[in-house]
UniProtKB/TrEMBL annotation:
Location(s), subcellular: Membrane
Name of the protein this chain belongs to: Major facilitator superfamily (MFS) profile domain-containing protein
One GO cellular component term noted in the UniProt record for this chain: membrane
Segments forming domain Major facilitator superfamily (MFS) profile: 34-448
Keywords: Membrane, Transmembrane, Transmembrane helix, Transport
Lineage of producing organism: Bacteria, Pseudomonadati, Pseudomonadota, Alphaproteobacteria, Hyphomicrobiales
GO-annotated molecular function: transmembrane transporter activity
Length: 458
């Protein structure tokens, strides 16, 4: 029975009461302690990504590193692509002392966050002008420890939230993740500019900017301390207590892979996972260098990203949730895939306009709004693919790692493409690279792939 039919005989005053109660209940879910814990962990997961990506690219651009080398920095994201290889270790192994004191998931959370803070501090000490390759190595350490934190947070989110809070937890996680990314892009650039304005030399300003970013990871560490170990994790620990370490790792790894690969059209689905966000990744790799290259200052870029960019991201997240609730999963993916590709044309237009604050604001708004829509819908699809609770953490790590292929390997030549064709043509190419994913989407839809997944609730 549909909602209108269910309330057709209810008086108007009672309908209003039901509606108000529904809104209060919806808000109350987002204020549950477990959901708030997941929200803060989402911020901690989103923060490090740009520190080894777009923010590092701006640093290298100011240090005089050539565009080709900056484009190759996309390869630093390799750990995000390969994290499924050690996800079974996180599922199966104990961290000495940490696991005994804090538990299976919380122990890994704290351990990975402390390693992440140390890696960011190492990157802060680098000097891209003198030794770009040492800076790249330090950034690789950041990416490795960050992707390990992602593995644990994803597992913690799935295991700690009851079914009634999963939707709110996922929405909160995605929103906070994007906010964390904005803090480490616009926020970091503001901080570095502030240090420069206070009289610090540029290399020192960048160093202290990264030190501040390392300190913000403590938000995740404090959250892990305040959280409680998921009951499902305790159950898994008890169930595998009799197994040795090797048996636990083998069970987590082989079970996840074999269960997924036996599904119909599994390889096509994996290819779609790789390609869906490629249009976003290909343009995103060069967005910051493009804005700086055409004449904007990093303060201009940071101000617009932190202002309209943040607002567009949050509104886009809500819009993505609305689309996913209103339409089928396949239709939602069509909408998300098309709008995030077309948004790249705003940067092509900006290349023609030149240094214009309103044009930059429009382009950043379009990018963040459509990317947030695509991300929420894409996360819903990845969650729908993880149907076996015994292998959720490892399977989710596998899928998100594959999604990072576009950001890491396929995007690594973006700098050379931009250098060869120019900025305006480059962003037109960013639209065209979305075509393979849309063709796969059409093929999977025709094969009934999305019907087999069943309804997906955001």
């Amino acid at each position: 029975m549909t909602a209108p039919e269910a309330t057709s005989d209810v008086p108007a005053t009672q309908k209003q009461t039901l509606k108000s109660t529904s809104w209060r209940d919806s808000l109350a879910v987002y204020l549950q302690p477990r959901v708030l814990i997941v929200l803060l962990l989402g911020f901690s997961s989103g923060l490090p990504l740009a520190l080894s990506g777009s923010t590092l690219q701006v640093w290298m651009k100011e240090a005089g590193v050539d565009l080709g080398t900056i484009g190759l920095l996309a390869l630093i994201g390799t750990p995000y692509t390969l994290k499924f290889l050690w996800a079974p270790l996180v599922d199966a192994l104990h961290v000495p002392l940490f696991t005994q004191v804090f538990g299976r998931r919380r122990g890994w959370l704290l351990f990975s966050q402390l390693l992440l803070i140390a890696a960011i501090l190492v990157l802060a000490m680098a000097d891209p002008a003198r030794s770009p390759w040492f800076a790249a190595f330090a950034a690789l350490l950041v990416a490795t420890t960050s992707s390990t934190q992602d593995i644990v947070v994803d597992a913690f989110r799935v295991e700690s939230l009851p079914e009634s809070e999963q939707a709110a937890g996922m929405a909160s996680y995605v929103a906070a993740y994007r906010v964390g990314m904005l803090v480490s892009t616009a926020g970091a650039l503001f901080i570095v500019s502030g240090f420069e304005s206070s009289g610090l030399a540029r290399p020192s300003a960048w160093m202290w900017g990264y030190v501040v970013m390392a300190a913000l990871i403590l938000i995740g560490a404090v959250t892990a301390l305040a959280a409680t170990e998921p009951a499902q994790s305790k159950g898994a620990e008890a169930a595998t207590h009799a197994q040795n370490a090797a048996e636990r790792v083998a069970h987590a790894a082989l079970g996840a892979f074999s269960e997924f690969l036996t599904r119909k059209d599994a390889l096509a689905a994996l290819a779609f996972v790789v390609l869906f966000k490629f249009t976003d990744a290909f343009s995103g790799t060069m967005t910051a260098p493009f804005v700086i290259d055409i004449g904007f200052s990093k303060v201009d870029y940071a101000a617009i990203v932190k202002g309209v960019g943040l607002a567009a991201t949050l509104i886009g997240g809500f819009a993505g949730g609305f689309v996913a609730r209103r339409y089928s999963l396949a239709a939602s993916l069509w909408i998300g895939g098309v709008v995030q590709a077309i948004a790249n044309l705003s940067f092509s237009w900006l290349a023609h306009v030149g240094v214009n604050q309103w044009a930059l604001a429009f382009a950043i708004t379009a990018e963040n709004f459509t990317s947030a829509i695509g991300t929420v819908i894409f996360v819903a699809y990845l969650s729908a693919l993880c149907r076996n609770p015994l292998h959720t953490a490892t399977q989710y790590a596998l899928l998100t790692a594959l999604a990072a292929v576009g950001r890491t390997y396929l995007s690594s030549g973006a700098g050379y493409v931009a250098q060869y064709v120019g900025w305006s043509a480059f962003f037109v190419i960013c639209v065209l690279v979305a075509i393979p994913s849309l063709l796969l989407l059409a093929w999977l839809q025709r094969r009934g792939h999305f019907d087999e997944l069943g309804p997906v609730r955001i």
